[in-house]
Amino acid sequence: MADVDTVASDLIDFLNASPTAFHAVAEAKERLKEAGFEHLSEREDWNLETGKKYFFTRNHSTIIAFAIGKRYVAGNGCHVIGAHTDSPCLKLKPISKVVKGGYLEVGVQTYGGGLWHTWFDRDLTVAGRLMIKETKDGSVSYSHKLVRVNEPIMRIPTLAIHLDRGVSEGFKVNTHNHLLPVLATSIKAELQKLAPVNGSLELDIDNDANKTNAKSIADNKKHHPILLQLLADQASCQPDEICDFEVQLCDTQPSNIGGVLKEFIFSGRLDNLCMSFCSLKALIDSTSSGSSLDDEPGVRMVALFDHEEVGSNSAQGAGSPAMLDALSRILKAFSTSDSKLLEKAIQRSFLVSADMAHALHPNYMDKHEENHQPKLHGGLVIKHNANQRYATNAVTSLIFREIAENHNLPIQDFVVRNDMPCGSTIGPIIASGVGIRTVDVGAPQLSMHSIREMCAVDDVRHSYEHFKAYFEEFSQLDAKISVDV
């Protein structure tokens, strides 16, 4: 059994390395490579072997990793854990330059359903990816580079109570007017001659040199030059070599273990990097020894998707065919004879949709249904919803409960109150799109969608151990269950 401090500390390292979905995938890639997983490309043919481990990325914000059992034959099932790499945040607009009231501000757009009031008065920075133009020996290419500014460079200040006497009755945020972070003051920028604040520059474009200069001026009209220079410094390039970017605001406060008894994890992005980490670590550790896959007839898989917070409808979201493509290509690598093998394999497969759950809040206990109050330290939560906002049913929950019972792991249940709307996950999206049996689960947490969330150290260990046991024992357990016969 892994030491609780080791698992929690490992999660802290993962969180601190992952300010964005792009960085989370980069961190996952490094861990998988160290564990002997081979990097595949979706653009190339796959030459797969039983007993081997692989992964691929899509858009560098989604990653799918799998290990093929040595007893696998085409048509056998995959046991999958699905989670997501994205979290609610503020992303820079395509034109982010705002000058107002003597301040340089940054235009941002809301991503997902964040608790936006928690972003005020935080020491913020930026991270994301740049598309860089590179010229070598007269040849032009474009590369993707991840960047992260570690120091605090901007802030969204609240309005003084003296100017808003009604704030104690409710802090209302206009997400268009009030969520602009302050980057600098105009006067300071002018004194340092970093950028013209007012007016515009015109350029007569007659040659290639002027075209480059024109692009630089055009970019300076879209984004503050001081911000572009900062990003360029991070990428070791020139500002005019940045062709485009996807950059978001991030909190600079690191993730840590806290509480007077060191029982909590305080961090941003626990939803859903905590489940991403636990599933990834479980896959790596369940396939780490030379004999791990000797008796495995199936495929163990982790699928970490982007864009869950905004509906999963993208080429790299759970609504895309990414996971189905992976299942199909694995099958075809071992057989091309039976056109119905994929359908058979899907019906022999199983998905654990792992997304953080709502723990009981001691100050808002009436927000929970009386008999369904998940608590911190109580283990993974099985999520139920009669209207299929979660994909759990009696068969799929039984499988997950049996694993918990076999390993003496705690388990909890959650149903939302009838008079409250229910959230959803990637579970129903994949279940309905692929036809795979699915259970929705998640570790309990507080402050979901805040810039700073919290969960319990114990539940990180419970989740990891539950997922690891699922990978190691699902094939034997599933053989004992009879339903559609």
From TrEMBL:
Pfam families: Peptidase_M18 (PF02127). GO terms for biological process: proteolysis. One of its GO terms (cellular component) is cytoplasm. Its cofactor is Zn(2+). Coiled coil: none annotated. It comes from the Eukaryota. GO terms for molecular function: aminopeptidase activity; metallopeptidase activity; zinc ion binding. PANTHER family: ASPARTYL AMINOPEPTIDASE (PTHR28570), ASPARTYL AMINOPEPTIDASE-RELATED (PTHR28570:SF16). This is Aspartyl aminopeptidase. It comes from Acorus calamus.
